[in-house]
């Protein structure tokens, strides 16, 4: 188990020096983060990783000498204890490349451009367990505004709700990535929101046609019909090409059923129900 109440050593690997500097500036807003290396090619990256044994590696995929995939392949052969958290931060959104990076040990995949203000928090959430990471981020992060005592309880309740939602969104992203849902599909974002909303729904399942599709359509400025079709396409894709071991944790998966994926409603509600039991009930 990782310990989050210590300095976290980070290596930044990106062929763009200016972008690497932006990443470094973002991470320096959290004193708990210590940048132990900033490198611009894959070969040097492997050497620095072996030398410093960082806690976190921020890795681009497009680099000279050795690309990010080659770096992941080499890191995989090295014995680390504990294993560093590897966050791929790249402009490549190709489905096959995403699957390859995750299969080689990447813990999280972020597609550029990405809001640099969110990067430190994402690292804390991925590095440690959600509850402790959130607590430490508040402790080490940017200055916290003192609450108005009259509204302290309301603000506290609202903050707690926002924190639960943010953590749940991250958790659902990881579930979808582990299942093998291609992150570049429009249905990926719709699925994530559908599962999050159903997981947070206290009255059971949100009616999918009358409420859920219109809610997602409004959030993404599209139509309910497009939401339904995109989710159906994403489910078909993961059912045929996704991680069967992970799928079997949620569904009865067999070769006979390979061409008969769950309905949108079944897929969303099954994952949401399991999240309620295993994650939100903690």
UniProtKB/TrEMBL annotation:
GO terms for cellular component: cytoplasm. Its cofactor is Ca(2+). One of its GO terms (biological process) is regulation of sporulation resulting in formation of a cellular spore. Binds 1 Ca(2+) ion per subunit. It comes from the Bacteria. One of its GO terms (molecular function) is DNA-binding transcription factor activity. Its main location: cytoplasm. Keywords: Activator, Calcium, Cytoplasm, DNA-binding, Metal-binding, Phosphoprotein, Repressor, Sporulation, Transcription, Transcription regulation, Two-component regulatory system. May play the central regulatory role in sporulation. It may be an element of the effector pathway responsible for the activation of sporulation genes in response to nutritional stress. Spo0A may act in concert with spo0H (a sigma factor) to control the expression of some genes that are critical to the sporulation process. This is Stage 0 sporulation protein A homolog.
């Amino acid at each position: 188990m990782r310990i989050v109440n210590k300095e976290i050593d980070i290596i930044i690997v990106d062929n763009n020096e200016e972008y690497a500097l932006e990443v470094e500036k973002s991470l320096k807003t959290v004193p708990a983060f210590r940048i132990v290396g900033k490198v611009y090619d894959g070969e040097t990256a492997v050497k620095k990783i072996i030398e410093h044994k960082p806690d976190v590696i921020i890795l681009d995929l497009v680099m000279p000498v050795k690309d990010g995939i080659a770096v992941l392949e080499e890191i995989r052969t090295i014995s680390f204890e504990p294993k560093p958290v590897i966050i791929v931060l790249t402009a490549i959104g190709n489905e096959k490349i995403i699957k390859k990076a995750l299969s080689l040990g990447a813990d999280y995949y972020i597609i550029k451009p990405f809001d640099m203000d969110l990067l430190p928090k994402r690292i804390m959430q991925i590095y440690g367990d959600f509850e402790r990471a959130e607590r430490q981020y508040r402790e080490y992060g940017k200055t916290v505004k003192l609450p108005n005592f009259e509204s302290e309880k309301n603000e506290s309740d609202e903050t707690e709700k926002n924190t639960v939602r943010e953590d749940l969104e991250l958790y659902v992203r990881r579930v979808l990535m582990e299942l093998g849902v291609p992150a570049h599909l429009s249905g990926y974002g719709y699925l994530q929101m559908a599962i999050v909303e159903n997981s947070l729904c206290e009255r059971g399942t949100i009616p999918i046609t009358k409420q859920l599709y219109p809610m997602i359509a409004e959030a993404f400025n599209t139509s309910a019909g497009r939401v339904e079709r995109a989710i159906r396409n994403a489910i078909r894709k993961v059912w045929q090409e996704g991680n069967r071991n992970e799928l079997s944790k949620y569904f009865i998966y067999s070769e006979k059923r390979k061409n008969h994926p769950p309905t949108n409603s079944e897929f969303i509600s099954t994952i949401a129900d399991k999240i309620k039991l295993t994650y939100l009930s903690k």
